[in-house]
Amino acid sequence: MVALVVAGVAWGTSGTLGTLLVAATGLPFLSVAGYRILVGGALLTLLALALRRFRPPRTRRGWGRLVAVAAASAVYQLAFFSAVGVVGVSIATLVAIGSAPVFVLTADLASGRQRLRPRLVAALGCTAAGLVLFMGTPPAGIAPAAALLGCGLAVIAGAAFAVISLLGARPEPDFDTITGTAGSFLLGGCAVLVVAALAGGPVGFSPTSAALTWVLLLGLIPSALAYAAYFVGLGSQ
pLDDT at position 12, please? Predict the structure, then answer.
């Protein structure tokens, strides 16, 4: 439980750190999204090497898991940081994180792992009401159509995160948590940066001390630390 709380707190810093990196470099949010998991993947690779547990997948199932996590991570970054650019950090974070458990619970109900009990109905009702309240009043200066778009992107991010959670809750023997997540982030980060470049935005920046500080913290706290803690928490449930 402590690991899951650490992960949640660390994730909450992603929008703020991303915004600070945008201010320091002038990069678009799509490029920042790519750097978040690319740097996080590099840091997790260094951790795996330092712990002498760098174990790349050797089977098709292991590589399949790595690619699946990479794809979900890329979709999450693209949708989340696009939402931040439209509706701001607070709304995007609350909607993305708030909607993810609903998708996980829906998948569990559909697969028969959970049964719809009164407590779950109450929890779903409260979550739905909360999300509607978050999305119901657009922030100042944002048109209703733009607010709806931003919240929709945040919901897509929540769905992508739910996929990551469902995969993480079902261990794959040939997918080492640290090494596999590192590889997924490296692959996903490269994919996001390619999309950012194709979208016409710059992906390079001047390596000033402020820029390097924010990009390192963005990769360290809401990526490497958060996901490492989250998968440790999932493994103990």
Answer: 82
